[in-house]
Amino acid sequence: MTDRIRITRTRGVLEITLARPDALNALENSMIAAICDALDQAASDSAVRAVLVRGEGKAFCAGDDLVDMGTAEHPEPDDLHARYAGGYPRIVTKILELDKPVVCAVQRYALGAGFEIALASDLIVADEGARFGLPFVLRGIAAGTTMLVRRTSWHVAMGVLATGGMMDAATADRLGLLARRVPADEVQDVAAELAGSLAGSATRAIGLMKSAMRSGETLSVGEAFDLQVEATAASAQTDDFAEGKRAFAEKRDPQFEGR
Fold first, then answer.
1. Where are the domains of the chain?
2. What's the pTM?
3. Which DSSP string corresponds to 206-241?
4. What's the confidence (pLDDT) of residue 109?
5. Which CATH superfamily is domain 5-199 in?
6. Span 7-59, pLDDT tens digits
7. N or C: which end of the chain has fewer CB within 10 A?
8. Are 178 and 169 a contacting pair, CB within 8 Å?
9. Are 50 and 204 in contact (CB under 8 A)?
10. In the chain, what is the straight-line distance between the N-terminal and C-terminal CA atoms, in Å?
């Protein structure tokens, strides 16, 4: 475990805080392992209804720490494929596969691995002055080829990847990447409020929708609708569905439990 990651639980929300503000929360191997462990906890713990990923200090995450990685304190495997597969792509994959809503709070910078983590999340709350980028090409390395192109388009992704440049929050918002764009001093509170609201909602239905959307990305429309129907049928057997029907009939707000 590392003290560079802080894990807290509040009213059904598991909060993962990158706690390395002196390095703009750049990731090294022990941090990546701790984040993956926390996401595994979120997946297996029924009391966790939503996840909030945030960074301490001036920035969300400046990407991988290319200086700290590969040192005696934070060694890496000699096999290059194992080295890169075991890096931030593990975090991205776990967020994508987590059938619970994930909110990401972005202040100032989300670069490289930080941007990838944000893109994998279900909802991004960003400050009005935030900057997003995938500057891998500036280090002579090929990465960042999966998430941005799926969330936007080929030309948007190539414009960011080929130049190593950054997009501002207004552009990210225009591209539909942001759930909320707020003043910098409101990011953490708005993100926490959103995660808390989701934690109190029909999270089992959200998980089923997330799974169907994820699996349907590469399918035909007909096949994707088949997955949707399966998700709908599964949700119709949940306690939350029964509560939703009762609440509607009784003209009150539902009290969901994520079951």
1. 5-199, 203-249
2. 0.91
3. HHHHHHHHHHHTTS-HHHHHHHHHHHHHHHTTSHHH
4. 97
5. 2-enoyl-CoA Hydratase; Chain A, domain 1 (3.90.226.10)
6. 999 999 999 999 999 999 999 999 999 999 999 999 999 999 999 999 999 99
7. N
8. yes
9. no
10. 31
